[in-house]
Predict the structure.
Amino acid sequence: MSLSSVFYFLSLYGYVYFEKLKPIASPDEFERAAHAQCLYLLGHAGLLHGLLLTSQYKETKIHIKSKSISSLGLKLAIGFTILNIGFTFFPQLGQFVERTAKLSAVAAAIALALAIPERKISSLLGALVIFGFNFLQALLSGWKENILILVILLGAFLLPVYRFRIVLLGLPVLILLIFVLPTFNTVFRENAWQKGIQQEEAFKIALDAVQKGDETSANNWSFLVGRFSEIGIFEKYLNNVPQVVPFYGTQIIEQSIANLFPRILYPNKPITENLVMERVRENKIISYYSKSVSAKPQIVVDGYLSFGIFGSWLFCFLVGLSAAKISVWAEQLFGGYFLGTGIIFSGLFNVYWRGNCLEFFLNTVVYSLVIMIIVYYTFQLIGLIETKKTGEAP
């Protein structure tokens, strides 16, 4: 976020892409943007500090019982996909639906990345099918992150094998996706979410809009300036807190903890989305009458709203601290990097990549930990992993 704000600063200087079309912004606007940028950088320093403190990996005592890692990746991708489809029939298991979908997507990307260098037709076809299914699900989800994550993961796992070719091909593909996805998603959401059109039809309409390219350039610049870093939204909070609205103190933390309790144990539990959007509205980020807009603040913003400048550092520090700690633990439980961080951590805890407001962030992390433990005991039960005997080679 601290790097992608470069487009916002270009906009302040009056540029649309690389053409100067507007007058330069006022000194006050530059000052607010610089303040937000400083807090982004401070937050990243806190994040890195937390990562470095807890990134202490040790040899695991768990052994993966599989002769072929690529075959295991494919089996896991198929297994998580089947589980995800099964869980969708039970609305009460929403936590499992979302997590198994992520696990399936990550395992599919890894399975394809491992199958390509091996060039075994059966493994490659199977991996392509399961990756294609997950990519289609990502396209129909309406979320840009789901698509980008799949592509970035595939490229990242192929990078050690095809270094130059991945860099040469991957960068243009990523730039192309960043350029077309804002228009595709805007049109898709408008038709599928707001007008209630069937997903398949909404997909065709969105694809047609991208091919025509009428709004692509404007939508893409708007995304790069506004949503890519959300620095403009952060500015509004800085302009409001604490001058108009006082610091929230522990309120956001208390709401996040209360959100962890299942509704069956907490019948009067408020709807989390409404709770979060209340601070969005009272800081005039969006109008009170807006019902279909979601503009939840990121962790660095929630930290500032709670405790000011120190809060931005503290919240991001705790994010880095917990991310590395959980990654280390996952590798201890699942026999090393491939299964521990590569699939389990990446699949269950990718909220660490895209962020969210504290209420949703903490909820995702806590319930992902619960599901990680369930997966660990399930893998032990079916014999996929086992504890190495003393003196046994890794």
Q: What stands out?
A: The beta strands are 15-16, 19-20, 62-64, 385-387. Residues 163-194 form the longest helix (32 residues). The mean pLDDT is 88. DSSP finds 17 helices and four strands in the chain.
